[in-house]
Amino acid sequence: MKVATLTLPLHDNYGACFQALALQRYLQKENYESEVINISDTLGKNDFDSVCKLLKKKIKLFLGMERRISKAFERFIELEIKKTEKIYLRSSYRKQLNSGYYSIFVGSDQVWRSDYVSDLGIYYLKDLNTPSTYPVAYAASFGKDELLYSYNNIELAKKCLRNFKQISISPCA
Predict the structure, then answer these.
(1) What pLDDT, on a 0 to 100 scale, did the predictor assign at position 157?
(2) Fewer beta carbons under 10 A from the terminal one: N or C of the chain?
(3) Quick one: pLDDT band at residue 66, thresholds 50, 70, 90?
(4) Which CATH number belongs to the domain containing residue 65 in this structure?
(5) Which residue from 103, 155, 167 is spatially nearest to 131, judged by alpha carbons?
């Protein structure tokens, strides 16, 4: 059975990358075909803003003005973590999310931290339209002791969390 992990974008967050790898290896050991849904840090903004941010980032990288993760860690991620193609647009994310996974594990890390994530609906699986998929929150975190959600984000969380079959959270830092 094919399962997925949805976590923060894989880049220079070493802890999140190692957590994603550990979960993936455990799932593979349990005979699941596991992959990380490889979202860009621009996902969640409108598609035009996403494209503009991506172009700006590529230009800065080319000009040497953008910080890059080390080549060795970039290679480690590439070789060790099985993931989807990089997803930049919301339409591609929706298609991937609803592509027939048996289960989607959201976490671990501060995936529900509103000042880290531009669109919390991504990590609350708001766009999941496949009733047969089994959503699980795995060591997800709000990141702080105080909930910094707007009224709309609280309502989104209340609505979407009802769809999760299992929820485990990580304590705040």
Answers:
(1) 94
(2) C
(3) low
(4) 3.40.50
(5) 103
Q: Which domain holds residue 96?
A: 2-169
Q: Examine the pLDDT at 151 and tell me if it is beyond 80.
A: yes
3-state secondary structure of 3: strand
Bin 31: left if φ > 0, else alpha if -120 < ψ < 50, else beta.
left
Q: Which residue has the tokens 């976490």?
A: 107
Does the pLDDT value for residue 3 go beyond 70?
yes
Domain count, the chain: 1
* pLDDT score of 50: 58
With CA atoms as reference, report the closest residue to 119 among 6, 3, 4, 2: 6
DSSP E strand boundaries for 28-164: 33-36, 103-109, 134-140
The three-class DSSP label of residue 56 is: helix
Give the angle subtended at the CA of 148 by the CAs of 56 and 127, to the nearest 5°.
Answer: 65
